[in-house]
Amino acid sequence: MTAPKKVGVQTVAFTSPPVILSTAAIVGAKEGQGPLAQTVDKVVADPYYGEDNWEKAERRMLQESLEKALSKANVKPQDVDYLLAGDLLNQIVSANFAARSLAIPFIGLYGACSTIYQGLAVGAMLIDGGFARYVLIGSSSHYSTAERQYRFPTEQGAQRPLTAQWTVTGAGAILLAAAGVGPRVTHATVGRVIDLGSADPYNMGAAMAPAAANTITSHLSDTGRRVDYYDLFLTGDLGFYGAELLEKLMREYGHDISGRHNDCGLLIFDRERQDVHAGGSGCGCPAVVTSGWLMQQFRERKLNRVLGIGTGALLSPVTTKQGETIPAIGHAVALEA
To answer: N or C: which end of the chain has fewer CB within 10 A?
Structure first.
C-alpha cells in the first residue's frame, strides 16, 4: 500500500501546507561585515559573546535565535509542540543545552549543514500529519568551535587551500505553524546519502554537489515540475566550487538551473572583499541565510517559489583520519508564497 501523501520515490506533498510564521537570525562579526548584514536580527562582535568559551557562545546564539523567533510570533515556549534542532558540535550539544533551557519537547537532529532543511521537512510532516500545531526549528555553528573540532586549533594559523570554506558563526530559527501568514512548506524531498569517492575535507563542496543534484533531480521527477516552476534553487553551502559543479551535473541530467541557482555559502560573504576562500559553510550558514535573507525576499515579493536544498557533508574527524571518503546528503523543501 502506498503512503497517501507520498509523491513519487522520495517526495512528500503536504495536504495542509504548514506556514513559516516567524524566523530569527544572529551572526558573528565577520558575517556582520558581509552583504546580508541588514537581513539578520543581531550581529555579535565578540566571538565569545560574553561567555568563557566558544562553545557556550554558540549555544547562547542558538538559544537567543529560538527565543526571538517565538517572541516575534507572540508564541510562548509552552505552546510549542516540538523543538527540532541540531549543530556540528560533538553530540549536538548546542541544541541539547538550548533545549534544556527552553523545556520544549525536543528531537535532536544531525544532518551536518543540511540540518535546518532536515528540520523543516520533519517539522512540516509533524504538522501536516496532525501531530503538532507549532514546531520550532533551529541550527547553529561557530567558526572557532568547528575549527577546533574538525581541523586545526585556530592558534596554529594553518594555511587553508582555496577550495576550503569559512564556517559561519551564527544561528537561525524558524517557527512553523499549522495556520497563519507566511511562506508555506508545500513539499519535502528527503535525500539519499551519496558518496562518489571525494575524500578531501578541504573541498566539501565537491562531496556535497552530487547529493544536491540527486535530490533536485528526484524532486523534479517526483513532482513533475520543470526547472522554471521555481524562481530560485537555493543550496545550503556548496561554496564557489561546489555550486559550479552542481550546475554542471544538473546540465548533464537534463536540467539547466544556472540562471535560477544561488548558494547560501556565496550569499553570506563577499568573496572579493572578505578572505573566506570558496565561501561560507556550517550549520549556521543555511540557517541564517534562510531565516534572514530568504524570508526578506518573500516579504518583499521578490520571490514566490523557492526550492531550498540543505546540503551536508557527513564526515567526522575520526572517519577522515581513518581514510574514509565523505558521504553527503541533500534535503529539499519547497517554499511557496
So the answer is: N
Q: In the structure, what pLDDT confidence band is assigned to residue 334 with cuts at 50, 70 and 90?
A: very high
Bridge-partner residues for 185, per DSSP? Answer: 335
User: Rounded distance, CA 205 to CA 269, Å?
Assistant: 16
Residues 6+ apart with CB under 8 A from 72: 22, 23, 24, 175
Residue whose entry in the numeric block shows the C-alpha cell 568563557: 52
Joined together, the cell numbers standing for residue 3 give 503512503
pLDDT at 28 over 90: yes
Closest CA to 68 of 24, 19, 38, 116: 24
CA–CA dist 221, 218 (Å, integer): 5
182, amino acid identity = G
Identify each DSSP E strand in the chain by its residue range: 6-7, 11-13, 19-28, 42-44, 82-87, 106-108, 134-141, 166-167, 170-177, 184-189, 232-235, 261-263, 280-281, 305-313, 328-336
Contact 151, 138 (CB under 8 A): no
Summarised one tens digit per residue, pLDDT across range 261-293 is 999 999 999 999 999 999 999 999 999 999 999
Angle at CA 297, nearest 5°, toward 294 and 299?
A: 110
DSSP secondary structure code for residue 10 in this structure: T
AA letter at 313: A
Helix axes 204-223, 239-252, angle to 10 degrees: 40
Backbone angles phi, psi at 17, to 5 degrees: -55, 125
For the purposes of burial, counting CB atoms within 10 Å of the CB of 180, is it exposed (0-12), middle (13-18) or buried (19 or more)? middle
C-alpha cell at 91: 553530540
Structural domains for the chain: 6-177 (3.40.47.40), 184-336 (3.40.47.40)
Q: 139 to each of 62, 122, 197, how far by Cα in Å?
A: 7, 14, 28
Is this model's pTM higher than 0.90 or not?
Answer: yes
SS3 294: helix
